[in-house]
Amino acid sequence: MPRNATSKSSSKSSSRTTRRASTKGSETDALHILAEDHKKVIDLFDEFEKMKENEETDDEAKQMLVETACAELTIHAQVEEEIFYPAARDAIDDMDLLDEAEVEHASARQLISELAAMQPDDDLYDAKFTVLGEYVKHHIQEEEKELFPKLKKAELDLEEIGEEIRDRKMELREELGVASDEDDDDDPGSQRKVH
C-alpha cells in the first residue's frame, strides 16, 4: 500500500499517536503480536530445512508446510501494510526504514505467488522457498532490531493497534480459509488451510 494511501485504520491513527506506548509490552500489544507471527514463520522455515534434509519427507507434507507459511506471511504482510505501517509512519521519522519494509513485502509477495503456481517436485521449488525464508528472516531482523525499538519510544497506542491487528487477522483468516491461531498446537507445520 502506498504510504499516502488510506486504510481502515487511518482515521484512528491520529488518536493513536496521542497516547504513550506501554514500555513493558504485553501479549496484546502490536509489537508482541507481530513478533509472535515472526517466530511462527521462522519455525516453519526451519522445519522446511529439516524436511529437505530428510529423504523420507513426502511432497504433500512439504507442500502443506509451504502453503501454511505463505498464508501466514500473506496475512502478516497485509495487517502490517493496512494497520501497522501507517501508524508507524505517523509516529516516527524514519521513512526509509518503512519504505524498505514495503519493498521487502513486495519481493516476498512475488515469491509467494510463484510458489503458489508450483508443485514440490518442480525445479527451483525448494530454492524459491529457501530464498523467501532468507528474505523474511532479514526483514524480521530489521523490524525487530530497528523499527520496534523506535516505536516503543514513540507516542503510539500499541494496545489499540494490537487489537486492530488481531481483528483484521481473524477477518483475513476467514477470507482465506486459514485455520485460526487458536487451532495451532506445538507442531509448527500443523496450521493448515481449511479449504
TL;DR?
Helices cover 69% and strands 0% of the residues.
Report on this structure.
- The chain has 195 residues and is mainly alpha-helical.
- The chain has one domain.
- The protein is 69% helix and 0% strand.
- It has 6 helices and no strands.
- It has helices at 10-16, 30-53, 59-91, 95-116, 125-153, 158-176.
- Helix 1 crosses helix 3 and helix 2 runs antiparallel to helix 5 (125-153).
- The protein is elongated.
- The protein starts with 9 loop residues before the first helix and ends in a 19-residue tail after the last helix.
- The model is unreliable at 1-24 and 184-195 (pLDDT under 50).
Give the H and E element order.
HHHHHH
Low-confidence stretches: 1-24, 184-195
Distance N to C terminus: 28 Å
Task: Find the count of extended strands (DSSP E, 2+ residues).
Answer: 0
Radius of gyration from CA coordinates: 17 Å
Shape: elongated
* Proportion of beta-strand residues: under 5%
Alpha-beta classification? mainly alpha
Largest sheet: none
Portion of residues in helices?
55-70%
Discrete helix count: 6
Number of individual domains: 1
